[in-house]
Amino acid sequence: MLPTKYIAFFFLSALFFEHATAHAQNSENATFGFDHDEADKLPVDWAAASGTWMIAADGTNKAMKQAGKNQGDSFNVCVQSKIKYQNLDMEVRIKPLEGKEDQGGGLVWRYQNIKNYYVARANPLENNLIIYKVVNGIRKEIKSTNVKIKIGEWYKLKVVMIGYTLDCYFNGDKLLNATDKSFPNAGQIGFWSKADAISLFDDLKVKKIH
C-alpha cells in the first residue's frame, strides 16, 4: 500500500490536471468550463469590463454569471484577457434567468476596448436574435431575426467570422449572415448582456480559423 503522502500527491495532481484541462487553451483553440472555479469570484484571466460578473452554482454545476441589475443602455461585458482572435468559430451555452428591462445575453468578439467590438445576443423578452457592432460606445444593429426563446432554459449561441463575413447560429441553426468591416483586426472574446439581464454562460468553445 502506498504511503499517505504519495496518495495525497497523486490526488492533488489529478485535481490540478482536471482544472487545467477545463481551461485548455493555445494559440489555436480554447475551451472554458467553470465547474472547478471558485464561486463568487472571476476565473483567472477573465476581466469584468462592466457589470457584475462571477462564478455561480447552477444545480450541481457552475457557470459564469452576470448578476448586476443595471439600467437603460448599460452594457455588461466580461472578456478573456489573455487570448485574441481574428477569424474564429465560437459557441457558448446561455441561460437567461431574469430581467425587466432586458433579458438574455450573447457573445463578444474582436473586442478592442469597452467602446469597440462586435456582439451577437438573443433576448427572450423580445424573442429575437441580433448582431450588433459597438463603435465608439454607440451600438448599431447589423442584422436581426425573430426567434422563440424561453427564460430559464439553456440555449446555444454560435458565431463564425472570417474576414468581413459572419454567420450567427441559434441552437445549431444558422439564422443570420452579414458583412461588416468595422473591426478587421484580432480582438478579445467574451460575454455580454444589457441593463438588468441576469444570465448564466457556460461551455465556451473557440476555434481559430486560418
Q: Which keywords apply here?
A:
seven-stranded antiparallel beta sheet, 210 residues, mainly beta, single chain, 1 helix, Jelly Rolls, 15 strands
Helices and strands in order, then pairings?
Blueprint: H1 4-22, E1 29-32, E2 46-50, E3 53-58, E4 61-66, E5 75-80, E6 88-98, E7 105-113, E8 116-123, E9 128-135, E10 138-146, E11 155-162, E12 165-170, E13 173-179, E14 188-194, E15 198-208
Antiparallel strand pairs: 1-15, 2-5, 3-4, 4-15, 5-14, 6-11, 6-15, 7-8, 7-14, 8-9, 9-10, 11-12, 12-13
How would you describe this structure to a colleague?
The protein has 210 residues and is mainly beta. It has a single domain (4-208), classed as Exo-inulinase, domain 1 (Jelly Rolls). It is built from one helix and 15 strands, in the order H-E-E-E-E-E-E-E-E-E-E-E-E-E-E-E. The longest helix has 19 residues, at 4-22. It is globular, with a radius of gyration of 18 Å.
